[in-house]
Specification:
This protein has five helices and ten strands; from the N terminus they run E-H-E-E-E-E-E-E-H-E-H-H-E-E-H. The protein has helices at about 25-40, 105-115, 130-135, 150-160, 180-185; strands at about 10-15, 45, 50, 50-55, 65, 80-90, 95-100, 120-125, 165-170, 175-180. Helix 2 runs parallel beside helix 4 (about 150-160). The two termini are about 20 Å apart. Bound molecules: zinc ion. The site of zinc ion (ZN) has 7 residues, from loops.
């Protein structure tokens, strides 16, 4: 199963210390976070949920709003628990963000997917032993195991992503993508 969490594996440059706009889209993401927790798709360990959910800010831009790292999704969430990621420099392993907490450890993965798939506007990542052990037929699965939060893992996912909207990360978890949040979320119900 997934390795233990020991922090984010990139540095974050804060463009501004400001929470994302508390608009209907963020409210929708908060609801999906709570729902994922209820469905046990982001199991809690050491007080934090294992998973990360995001939506693209607007078409044509790769900026997105994502859960903060080490966040428990079973509580009442506020805009302060989310971070806007504007850009990622893979060479410098730097995430350029705006927020009041550190962005999710898988922020580089979300960025790479939004960049590769302009049709995708929501990415929900969670952990489910059951789904890993009993994958539905024809589910793409990454070939090699890679540590969470690394560019190695990003590479593994991009290799099998193609036009798939659902895939498994070997010995780790799942990714559910959608043209919108409901599409990414309802698939997992
Ligand atoms: Zn994960």
């Amino acid at each position: 199963m997934s390795e233990q969490y020991n922090g984010v594996k990139f540095s974050t440059f804060f463009i501004e210390e400001m929470a994302p706009e508390n608009d209907p889209k963020l409210k929708q993401l908060m609801n999906w976070c709570n729902e994922f927790q209820k469905l046990n798709l982001t199991p809690i360990s050491n007080g934090a949920s294992s998973g990360n959910l995001s939506y693209r800010l607007q078409p044509g831009s790769n900026a997105f709003v994502i859960t903060g790292t080490q966040l428990a999704l079973n509580r009442r969430l506020s805009a302060n628990n989310f971070v806007t990621v504007w850009d990622v420099d893979f060479t410098k392993k730097t995430v350029y963000a705006e927020g009041l907490c550190d962005p999710s450890s898988e922020s580089m993965l979300h960025f790479a997917i939004y960049k590769m798939r302009p049709d995708i506007n929501a990415i929900f990542h969670g952990h489910s032993e059951e789904m890993l052990n009993n994958p539905k037929p024809n589910t793409p699965i990454t070939r090699n195991e890679a540590p969470y939060g690394t560019q190695e893992l990003v590479g593994e996912v991009l290799q099998v992503l193609q036009n798939n909207n659902y895939l498994l990360i070997k010995n780790h978890g799942f990714l559910s993508l959608g043209a919108n949040m409901d599409e990414a979320g309802n698939r997992m119900k």
